[in-house]
Amino acid sequence: MKARLLVAFALVYVVWGSTYLGIRIAIETIPPFLMAGIRFTIAGSILMIWSRSRGNALPSRAEWKVAGVIGVLLMLLGNGGVVWAEQTVPSSLAALIVASSPIVTVAIDWLRPGGPRPSNLTIAGLLIGFAGVAILVNPFATDVARVDPKGAAAVLVAVLAWSAGSIYSRSRPYSTSALMGAAANMVTGGLMFLVVGLATGELPRLDLHATSARSAIALLYLIFVGALVGFTAFFYILQHTTPAKSTTYAYVNPVVAIILGWAVLDEPITPRVLLAAAIIISGVVTITALPHLLKRSTVDS
Predict the structure, then answer these.
(1) Phi, psi (5° rounding) for residue 12?
(2) pLDDT tens across 213-227, in order?
(3) Does the reported pTM lie above 0.70?
């Protein structure tokens, strides 16, 4: 089991970190919303069939309504904001902004009515993380890694939507299984992407003859590896380790994305990007991991 757990962590670290690069390559010759719609509709359908074959019941009507809300927040606005932004924002920088999701989630959970007040350590992590994001998206930056303002705004909206969807999903658990819930979220989100793609006139731009081989391969990778393998590995981690350890992907994924973006697409890595990355990841670690480490050290002593 320990070996399987290590493999699952490695898959989530590398696979989810590589999806930003996959998105960037896929939308080179495939319209962004239709690409995301194809990805999640197929992946969600396969995951739903597989989960059903394992004896899990299909979602109820009420659960499909929940999946619709989550599909809007997590998929359409969350993932969709990233997909749209990567038309102008390098994949590595998009991943860095998204790395602030745990920070934003804590802030939203605190600000909602009746939300828990974070500890002083968590507040420090919030301030650290937001400082890193500010350095990264600074519109007055003059280096080659300057982020397109519209693209940066889209990713920030995506982070807000993803964080809000994460909080909402925690209060609306599925009675069937978490895996079936993930499948329902992907299917509803995928269908919404297809509708938006059609509504925004992407269909005439979807030319199969003009679709490059590498975009097609990237889309297949996003479907079968990024979605299916990544989610399966993540749910295995949730079942066999602590919540604190399961969130470590949040500060490993951007490192993987930066390395892959630089190695494959020659995306720039400047001192400002490295500084922002270090600060953002420090803020996430302060919020997600440091409290558990301090608690454990107190118990041990």
Answers:
(1) -65, -40
(2) 999 999 999 999 999
(3) yes
